[in-house]
Amino acid sequence: MSIFFTILTICAVAASLAGVFLSWRWSAIPAWLAIVPMYFIDGRPVTGSTLLFWGVACAIALGINVLLPQPVVRSRVGMPYMVVGALAGAFAGMLMPLQQAGMILGAVAGLLLGAIAYSRTPASSAKGLLFPTRRWFNYTCAKGFPVVVTIATAAIAIMAVVRISYTTVTSISSIAV
Predict the structure, then answer these.
(1) Hey, is 45 helix, strand or coil?
(2) Model pTM greater than 0.90?
(3) Which of the 8 DSSP states describes residue 47?
(4) 3-class SS at 163?
(5) How far lies 58's CA from each of 30, 35, 151, 154, in Å?
(6) Of residues 41 and 34, which shows the higher confidence score?
């Protein structure tokens, strides 16, 4: 049964990451749905409090995306820079001792660095999204919070899959010896 839940988690993570890159309004939902199956696996790599916290965070991210104006929600300006930066930061944050806090801080730092990197491109100056301007801060905050929540939730799901895989390989290797 854990293989089925792992496949569900990986598919949901892929859907949420594709949704973030495409500025899909509901991208936080599959990210949260990715950690739900991990709660039901023996050994519970995801606790109930983690599931509840990220469920509330994903609901807030969804609420922000619903309340934002349509042009902002559908805009894909600079999203590859911000998403790749957030992904790199979240995976770098996995290496910190406090993994969830490290992932969140890493995703925020990566998103900001990605947004700053995009603001230095010629396409950004044509859109008026240069770094220290009010418009840059507004756009980065509006698009950034849902991205960070989605990326951090997906990273938790990936981390849970790695824990399950490591536990399975360790138990198989101990039986073989």
Answers:
(1) coil
(2) no
(3) -
(4) helix
(5) 10, 12, 11, 11
(6) 34
